[in-house]
Amino acid sequence: MSDTSQTQHLTAQELITTLQKNWTLEMDGTAMYATLAEAQTIPERKKIFLKLSELEKKHAGLWARRIIDLGGEVPKEHSGKGHSLKSAETHQGMQEIIAEIEAEERRDVSNYLNQMRLIQDEETRALLREVVLDEFAHATVLTRLAEHSGDRSALDYLLHRQRQGTGSWIGDAIYGVNDGLGAIFGIVSGVSGATLGNNKYVLVAGLAGMVASALSMGSGAYLAAKSEKEIFEAEIHREQKMLEQNPKSAQEELSILYQLKGVPPADADKIAEVLAADKDQFLKTMAAEKLNLTEDALSNPITSAISGSLSTAIGAFIPIIPFFFMKGIPAIIAAAIVSLIAHFAVGAAKSMITVRSWFSSGMEMTLVGAIEGIVTYLIGIALGGIGS
Q: Helix, strand, coil shares of the chain as percentages rounded to 5?
């Protein structure tokens, strides 16, 4: 919850004062929802108010840390007598209390958005973006409580609001090679240490590990891509229900998402209004804004499975190649050389999906591989000695 009325950019002290007010009102909100939870006999509704109380307390913690970082002092106590808290302690009907609190939550969203226009400090603005989305979600939860959708619908919305992003098949392939190479290099090193490079045992262990790793990676990639698609479809379904039940609230949420990106309020409202005229486009836009994902960007489960399996098998096959043609110490040395070269190549390739330089990424991967090979080789020698 928030409150600000300044019309100019805030000074350092004004910023601290504003955040102190934010902290105070968030703590009031914590107490308010806790009070409402204590009065509930309906389990679902009690869980909702307890969760909302936890989220308000989390917001207060964010403001407290930011106040300290800016050199200010966190207030020693909060009033505990916010307008909505007084409502919660009255004998009004629950629907009236919920409606009143929902209106206040929406005013809080507006106030926080106003703060974003006044405050230039980027760290504080990042916190504001996070809190705005939570506060709007609170208002949506309360709307669902007040409507015929019921407590179960509101609880489901509150507990499943967080979404996950995704990666590309290129990333899956790179990490598949990485996993296969790392896992089988460790097996090859350990078995080589235990058997002094007996190529028969190394090949059996290496090939078995390669198949197991490839199948594991492929099935994992398939399930991840399938889950990602199901999450997207579920989000579309949720947004469709929200649009049908409360089109004004859905449109307002999209406007807020655009405002968080810096779009002026009037323009954001206009964009949301235009998109709302096309139901399918509106739903896809809402899902994309919330998940940072479009339907076209979804990974194909079969493609992900094949990519993950083949890339893992390729990475896993590299350390065992020398043992097809050599045995003993020469095979161990050759396997170490080709594996470390492959580690460097995979590390360098990872720079395609990270911001690190290819050389530093490659060297880091090579160092990790070298340590892994030495440790597993020594363990293999120790185990081989025990066996004899």
A: 80, 0, 20
